[in-house]
């Protein structure tokens, strides 16, 4: 039996990976402690990621709709203003309510919460410099590293969170910048660019690669980029930032074509650096206990999430796989199930990805490019929201559903949706993929009318037969 002060499970990091692992462990009857240095639970996602960004995306969308869409719906008013402090306060209220909620869940499930910075002194002991001051050693039979990730810096670009901001600074700008330059056309850059663009910034996105969001299906990506351009977002692809001058009022970026060539200057009031994220394991003492990482700094784990050091596990953004909150949560549950002697399984091919712009883009499974590369014979079924009655009724009909199915068996290989609520619509497809469904399975399932979901049914019909409404 464990000594009174010894835990079955110690989790380092209280993000979606760590806090979910801790709650699940406690639910499985394991004595559990979670160590978090931030002072609040929920990690990157809740404090400076998913949640505050979605709050601002919603608020800015409301403003944008009021300005551009309400009149055509016959809703008129004489004055429309942005109250940025109130918008930020609403975001902060959402964040603080949710982080306190997790503290409540810890209490309910009897997870011990230690506030402080943890560092390995042995494979079963973590020394914690507590936020109150002082130090305590937390012992555990199993230790889960859930320390997440941090912003990837760009050489020569120093983030001051004022003129040159990371996503964290971009979530708390004190005023709407006239000109915002976003470096990196990944989902975080496009989401934050959308927020400020809707509130009035001129947004230019500079991207080294030839495409925005490289993981996206090519055909969907093209339409998506067109949508963003319609919203006045400008793109400079195949372009690199080679110099930054912050000496004047704003920022002057020196740009160069990715392949080399003539330089140009781009001026901005604020520059957002969103060129990716890297695992965060600084000061954790991985070297002390000999935990292996790969070239990208990600902790290597086996299929039970165990590192090369017995009893030490790792999950979430700190290990390979999609850097997404729901993936971290799945990792956390599966890892703890293994520790408790049960089976756990996470299939990274079934992890949906969503870009929460307007329209949203959501996908699961393979892109058409990936299916081609596999050499599988396939069929494509597509259905545009222009032909969907609900989308027309609400006058928000940009986008499509695209389904890829194996030609011979009709098994669904990938689903890509661009729609205002694609992030919700995708789950029917996730479930279908998880169950190994065929597109005919979706097509023969009764979908309520009038809903956007009917477009998923019609796209499924289009893979092996004909849709009705186009
Ligand atoms: P984290 O959430 O990073 O949590 C790790 C925690 O560990 C942190 O709180 C950190 O303080 C703590 N920690 C680190 N080291 C120590 C230590 N030595 N001792 C004690 N504590 C430590 N994902 C989505 O799925 N959907 C989204 O919409 C989405 N939007 C995002 C928007 C933005 C702007 C950003 C930045 C990210 C977004 N993400 C989104 C990604 C998501 O936030 C991450 O994938 C997720 O937070 C990873 O969870 P995690 O538990 O692995 O790590």
TrEMBL record:
Where along this sequence does the record place binding of FAD?
54, 118, 147-149, 317, 323-326
Q: Which residues form the active site?
A: 449 (proton acceptor)
Q: Which GO BP terms apply?
A: 2-oxoglutarate metabolic process
Asked if Oxidoreductase is a keyword of the record, the answer is: yes
Q: How is the cofactor bound?
A: Binds 1 FAD per subunit.
| Keyword Nucleotide-binding among record annotations | yes
Indicate which residues the UniProt annotation says bind NAD(+): 184-191, 207, 276
Residue limits of the Pyridine nucleotide-disulphide oxidoreductase dimerisation domain? 351-460
Cofactor(s) this protein cannot do without: FAD
**Protein name per its UniProtKB record:** Dihydrolipoyl dehydrogenase
Organism annotation: Musa acuminata subsp. malaccensis
